[in-house]
Amino acid sequence: MFAELNELLNASPERPEQGKLTLLRDTKTDGSFLVHHFLSFYLKAGCKVCFVALLQSFSHYNIIAQKLKLHKLNVCLWIPSLLGLLPRGFQQFSQGVSLTAAKERGQLVFLEGLKSCFDVFFGEEQHVGQTNPLQFVSKDGSNLKTMYEFVRTSLMASGSDSWKCPVLLVDDLSVLLSLGVRPVDVLDFIHYCRVAVCSQLKGNIVVLVHSNDDSEDEENELVVNSLCHQSNLILWAEGLATGFCKDVHGQLKIIQKGSSELKAEKNLLRIYQYKIQDKNVTFFARGMSAAVL
Amino acid sequence: MAALATGGATPSDGATSFQRKVPASSRLAAIAGTRPSVRHGQLLLSSGLPSLDCVLGGGLAVGTLLLIEEDKYGIYSNLLFKYFLAEGIVCGHNLFVASAKEDPADILKELPAPLFDDVHKNQVDEKETAIKSKQESQESMKIAWRYQNLPKMEVSPAASARFGHYYDVSKTVSPELLKSIKWHRFFLPEEMSLHPEIKTCNMTCGYTRLLQSIQRIIYQEGFDGSYPQKKQKNILRIGIQSLGSVLWGDDICCTDNPEDIFSLTKFLYVLRGLLRMSLSACIITVPAHLIQNKAIMERVTNLSDTVVGLESFIGSERETNPLYKDYQGLIHVHQIPRLNSLICDVSGTKDLAFRLKRKQFTIETRAGSSQCDTFI
To answer: Are the Cβ atoms of A177 and B299 closer than 8 angstroms?
Structure first.
């Protein structure tokens, strides 16, 4: 997770929020760094995470999560003598996340979409059965019910678990539309997940979608607009309108919905620019990039 | 001084405290024609064009898909397709060629011939021979005496040990070289006549057969690691020509409201899964200019790793524009993947044009733009 983004969002792994739907949106750029942030954030916070990864393999996320972990470890090694003086919170901060370890201790349930789809397509009928979450690829229907069941069973608290609130992370939702699922079924899936995860289990949902201002993909825009209205927090990563720049990779809009719909509070909109480095992402106010100052 | 002293005291049993940690990727680098990326250890292949490798940040990663959006007459995209396959031949990789309009054997016969002793290598060699002759003239080295007895380095390494080769488009590859590699074919008209109709996953028949054929080859030849006892690993280069065109049985290029808009995207998704789990790389050319429904191209771009669009000047008003008189077309790099890393190695310039000569395909920034870089 990126410490600067935590400060901007006023979030901390010590006290994660509950019952929230966060929408990650990217336009003309790659917003997957936000997914990596939230993945390690919730794992650090001790939440049980169900990660539906539809586009990349497990090793991709694992390698990046390890990199984020190493970065923090280096910072701590430089000041070994002070570690004893630092408050306990900082020591926990230095532990880092390893996805393999999280999977083994049951904190992370990882659905690798590419592998499941491979099983559905090339596997034999009787072995696949009816429980493969990506089963909708084989039939004409666009029913996401099996995927919802998978999410629900993996986040349901079992007796021996000591994890905090459950979290559903989806990367990314726009792929489902490419696989033949209708937009209304995608929205139904999110609705069912919100009922199960946010209301009943008091957990969080984080979803990544792609969008484009001049996109001709109307179905995608429909899903994105609908999710924008439903979500509590929107992180919108956009490429710069002026084109490619080496020092500023894009702009991040943080839109926090007013907490109470009855009072019609105004949405809080803040805009920052960011630069992605190998192990970290730095955020700064617009025009205040280190290269300029 | 101290370094020399310890260097002088180094016995052959390696008693120094300095130990070079062998990186894990050195095992994988043993595969011919690949090199590990400096940033994240990902194994890279050459796309056949050294200039395109530079633009893509070093090369094409193993397990990824390179999508080429064809130019209007398919001339230059076909050339890139052939360069990719020719590179596979020179490196000794296995090939899988799929086409719906040309017999794969004919495609292979027309691949450009590699330049083993080409002009460019000669220029490099001239410099190296000059240095070598200077060294030989010293009877005994006075300063670098430690290196006196080391064996001389080869001036001209074997052609296939290089990363990225040059090709002569006016000549075709020799049949002996073709015979030396193992390749597999998929020609849609003959596959359709051999087997009865099947329809899986509600995808166009041609795509289903192609996926099954690719999966069978990957499994049988062990590219997915299913035969661990096989000592020598190799790469499978898959080339699919004009995917999405009418000849594949898909109507997305014909009408604005095609019957089945998900066939191509489903195909790409399953193919992505196949590539990620095997030692292979794939090049696909798509006639993007014929696809009326632009939403499909957006989805196709999201499902591919590297997307490069070609725009040739043939038949357009830019052909006579003096600004473009040296170039044959523009290259648009729409997407570069970020694999195992938050960032990708992308070159700063986005305004690229290409120029084709007999022995060289260069990509440069347009002469009118502020930065002028040439990728050779």
So the answer is: yes
